[in-house]
What does this fold into?
Amino acid sequence: MTALTKSIDQIVSLTEEEISAIEKAYNTVEISKGDLFIAQGKVCDQVAFVVYGKLRNFYFDEAGNEVTCYFVTPNNFVSAFSSFLTNAPTHENISALEDTLLRTISKKDLEALCELVPKMQIFRRVIVENLFITMEKRIMMLQSQSAHERYEKMIKENPDILLSVPLQYTASFLGITPQHLSRLRKELAK
It folds into this structure.
């Protein structure tokens, strides 16, 4: 069993036949650091599972500034989900922060896989529910916590992101400037 099928098996118990069908349905894609998995203006017709590497989901605000929505680490799924579900061009960009290995599946192939392995419908629902929860937590964080509280929470929950992601991306994710993040770091170091 690979990391992909282990991840799925944790949610819906898979038989050997189902594992084989899933493995065959997914492709392996390597993305180099700095390359895009999806670019704004394109329709996203794939979902990817991160085997190794890190990705950053971001968009450009009206002033042309990059706004980081979230980071994607190994053993997680990623897509421009609104685009994937509606077939409309995405406003998001998903780029590799380091060399990344993905297991990808197209929307068409996912539909066929769900016919072949009906349990995958349950898995899809759980993925969408988890994405909703993640986005809701992010909105609450930005609306109800101070920059100091957001930074402390990130230290507790995602210390690896702080150590491996450029300062400007972390600041953007926290909704602050890089200068403000530097001040917060100095305050906490005292």
